[in-house]
Amino acid sequence: MRAERRYWGVAVVGALLALSAVTLDRPVLLAGAAGIGGWLLSRQFDFVRASAAVRSDLRIEQDPDRGTTLTDQPVPVTLGARLAGPSALSLRVESRPPVSMRRVAGGDRTDAPVLRLPRGESSARRTDTYESPVAGDHAFDAPTVTAADPGGLFSQRFPHGPEATVSVDPRRPRDVHVGEGGERGERVLATDGDRSGRRTESGLEFAELRKYVTGDPARNIDWKTTARMGEPYVREYESQSRHATALVFDHRASLGQGPDGATKLDYLRQVALAVARNAREREDPVGLYAVGDEGPTELLGPEREDRRYEEVRRAIRESTATAAVGGSDLSVTPATARRRADDLDGDASEYATTLRPYFEAADRYVSQLGDHPLAETVRVARSRFRSADLNVLFTDDTDPVETVETVKLLQRGGSHVLVFVAPSVLFEPGGLADFERGYARYLEFEEFRRRLERLDRVTAFEVGPGDRVDAVLDDRRRRAEP
Questions:
Q1: Where is the composition biased (Basic and acidic residues) (predicted)?
Q2: How far apart are the first and last CA of the chain?
Q3: Which of 219, 396, 417, 445 has minimal Cβ neighbours within 10 Å of its Cβ?
Q4: Residue 283: left if φ>0, alpha if ψ -120 to 50, beta else—which one?
């Protein structure tokens, strides 16, 4: 409970009357001071009793229209307050939205979203609309209630009511294609046949195999079909214990290529979430090694607990393409670092002593992680955690040499490797403006994908917009017709 300014003003009057009674020897003034004090105590008692009744009877709802939305997509949130009966106090109920969500509609957007219940009223309601450019779980804290007595003497402020969470997902690509080239003419190098008949509504291809059911050995899972379908399929093999699965998720700057909501990262994210979900459904341990331009951003070893799955899912869902290293404000090159360190060599001043370790450290960091952060992250992860039975790599074809090196690292210890690669030609602005050149680059990518598959225990898939894949191959087929 808080005494307001008016309370203190009345209390000062009572104190002055008491002081005057003593100073002027006027007992009648002392009676006045006692009357003021008694009145204040009575009002305080009434306020405490009324505020306790409010806390007991007040029901608050904080209800998002839907629990999940997409980035920059509005979601209405209703704030309501209801009392069992009219109260002698006036109430102010203030919503506490997360700073990551902005209010786009509802009342004056410059003010806090507030409900007011004047004395004698028993219910109020308002709806505000929010949106967020940031993916993730956004929590609305419990609303704050301020109760005030009608005389302006006292107030009490307390949190009351439920919290609420809105999960904001990145915008999803509409036509996710996961496939591989080959002599069967499924996607790449094929210029005839009906490919569209083998795609589901989500754009994933599959073979006619039995769906996984509870109790099937993990050894029987057909990883190619599982990756394409987004749910487990099995073949009949000998049984084997659960498989630890490690996801190596690349979200460096090059993965941000493509239109909003349809970047390389957006496409790979959908596949990664499906793989993680499948691992959870099979109760396999799952982990995540996320890679930015400066090195690892997440190192989560494979575990079976639901907590670990939620950590993996959240990290993938909230991932964004990192800024490229080498900009004017981000880092120095090894040559620059060495030159500056050499300039300070032999300088015993406090200034040189302070700066020298920074340039030496920058040299080491750029040479170790800046050049090959993907491979280095895998090395770091393997030094900390046991080798997974299945390693799943999500990346693009920007640096084929580093990708091959990374896959070879992931193979060690007899591990199986799945590789999902986003072809740059399908995402670059104007990449398909010249279909002949686009098709040639697509063939180069397919050769790179096949090179990966020639490695032991490795299966590689392309991931991208299905309509663009069809456009390249259909144009090539038309040109080949006599």
A1: 118-129, 169-202
A2: 89
A3: 219
A4: left
Phi, psi angle pair for 455, to nearest 5°: -75, 150
Tell me the torsion sign for CA atoms 202, 203, 209, 215. negative
Supply the pTM of this predicted model. 0.59
Residue 477 vs residues 170, 225, 288, 472, 481: alpha-carbon distances, Å: 35, 27, 41, 9, 6
Q: What is the pLDDT of residue 404?
A: 94
Distance (Å, rounded) from C-alpha 193 to C-alpha 219? 33
Contact (Cβ atoms closer than 8 angstroms) between residue 253 and residue 321: yes
Asked if residues 222 and 366 have their Cβ atoms less than 8 Å apart, the reply is no
Structure tokens at 239: 């049984």
Half-sphere exposure of 457 (CA within 13 A, CB side): 15
Rounded CA-CA distance 236/214 in Å is 14
**Residue 445 exposed, middle or buried by CB count within 10 Å (0-12, 13-18, 19+):** buried
CA dist 365 → 106, 337, 373, 431 (Å): 49, 10, 10, 34
- Is beta strand 390-396 parallel, antiparallel or unpaired with respect to 245-250? parallel
Q: Which CATH architecture has domain 59-169?
A: Sandwich (2.60)
Residue ranges of domains in the chain: 2-56, 59-169, 176-480
Q: What is the pLDDT of residues 155-202, one digit of tens each?
A: 899 999 999 999 888 777 777 888 775 333 333 333 233 333 333 333
Whole-angstrom Cα distance, residue 242 to residue 219? 8
Q: What is the DSSP string of 233-294?
A: EE----------EEEEEE--GGGG-SSTT-SHHHHHHHHHHHHHHHHHHTT--EEEEEEETT
The predicted-structure confidence for 106-135, as pLDDT tens digits, reads as follows: 655 556 789 998 988 889 999 999 998 877
Over residues 219-252, the pLDDT tens digits come to 677 777 777 777 887 775 443 456 899 999 999 9
27: tokens are 């007992």
Please, are residues 287 and 198 in contact by the beta-carbon 8 Å criterion? no
The answer to whether 376 and 369 are in contact (CB under 8 A) is yes
